[in-house]
Design goal:
193 residues, alpha/beta, Rossmann fold, 7-stranded parallel beta sheet, 47% helix, globular
Length: 193
């Protein structure tokens, strides 16, 4: 694979689409749901496309519905498995069906110019670490922001610092991973990227 094949975007690229990673649990706390709705509205107000996991449940559904209501183009990417179980968001402007979760993750990475992670589960953590690892390696310069609602990501940030302290993680990882406690702060970080 050549360097150009591994480079996802150039530094200083204009944001046109934001990939949002988030949970699909319908049992998440109300403050997380409110943040998902606020983020969807903010993406629409900025004139950006929302790229997300393509499901209608949990924070994913709230995020997509709010983005649509605010005029955003919505691109969902979901594996056939979730469509077969009735979770797909058929209201997306574009609904891409992947074969596997790995295919889905690759497409989510390719379609976004920047990444925001709302609270989520194992899939969200996998996506965060994949983006962080490839950025640390210099394969792209796309911004990654954790939406740290009510300190949700504090344990993760502490674990990354712990890895840095023990020389398993390069210190650069902590300087390229941004955390924002509010949607407004996340949007300000993206505006400066």
């Amino acid at each position: 694979m050549s360097d150009t094949d591994t480079t996802i975007s150039a530094p200083g690229a204009t944001i046109r689409a934001v990939t949002v990673f988030c949970g699909s649990s319908d049992k998440s706390a109300l403050e997380f749901a409110a943040a998902a709705a606020d983020l969807g509205r903010a993406i629409g107000a900025a004139g950006w496309t929302l790229v997300y996991g393509g499901n209608r449940i949990g924070l994913m559904g709230i995020l997509a519905d709010s983005a649509r209501a605010a005029g955003a183009r919505v691109v969902g990417i979901t594996p056939q498995y979730f469509l077969d179980h009735g979770h797909g968001d058929n209201q997306c402007d574009e609904l891409i069906v992947s074969t596997t979760m790995r295919d889905r993750k690759e497409m989510l990475e390719q379609r976004g110019d920047a990444f925001i992670a709302l609270p989520g589960g194992l899939g969200t953590l996998d996506e965060i670490f994949d983006i962080l690892a490839t950025r640390t390696l210099g394969w792209h310069e796309k911004p990654l922001i954790l939406l740290n609602i009510n300190g949700f990501y504090e344990p993760l940030l502490a674990m990354i610092q712990h890895g840095i302290d023990h020389h398993f993680i390069k210190p650069r990882a902590r300087t390229i991973l941004h955390a924002a406690n509010t949607v407004d702060a996340a949007m300000r970080l993206l505006a400066r990227s």
